[in-house]
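Feature request, filed as a ticket because there's no other form

It would be nice if the structure record came with a short human-readable summary line next to the tokens. Right now we just get the raw output. Example of a typical job, pasted below so the devs can see what we mean:
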Amino acid sequence: MRLQESGEMYLEAIYVLSKKNTKVQAIDVGAYLGYSKPSVSRAVGILKRGGYVETDPDGYLVLTEAGKSVADKIYERHVILTEFFVGIGVSEDTASADACRIEHVISDETFSAVKKQMGK
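Raw output as currently delivered:
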């Protein structure tokens, strides 16, 4: 299953929230992304069917290995691109917002070149 940008954003949100709190609920994801409960419920259902997310016995969201792999990739891109943009003089807020949009469409080749340029 090929994820769309929104699916990647949900996985990244679960990943970021799980780094802060060990337990992540759908309501936390909605608050983090600014989305409604029905939107989050629908997206989580799609991610579950795709094998990216599971719920533990207490109802908390847990990334599967496939989900972690995608989330790691997207989060790394966000962090590196934000650092790159800040390094060339873009404000932190703008750099982060731009990185959030670009992280979903940048090619592996271009991202590797950015990382190489930054010495990462």
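Something like this underneath would help us a lot:
The mean pLDDT is 94.
The longest helix spans residues 65-87.
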